[in-house]
Amino acid sequence: MKIGIGAFLTDRSVRPDVLARAIEERGFESLLLPEHSHIPTSRESRYPAGGEMPGYYSRIVSPFPALAAAAAVTRRITLGTAVTLLPQRDVIHTAKEVATLDLLSDGRILLAVAPGWNREQMRSHGTEPRTRGALLEEQIRALKTIWTNDVAEFHGEHVDFDPLWSWPKPVQRPHVPIYVGGWGPAAVRRARAIGDGWMAGNAPDPAAVKEQLTLLDDGPLVPMTVFGVGGHELDVLDAYLDAGTERVALLLEPAAEADTLRLLDSWAPLVQRLA
Question: Which stretches of the chain drop beneath a pLDDT of 50?
Answer without folding.
Answer: none
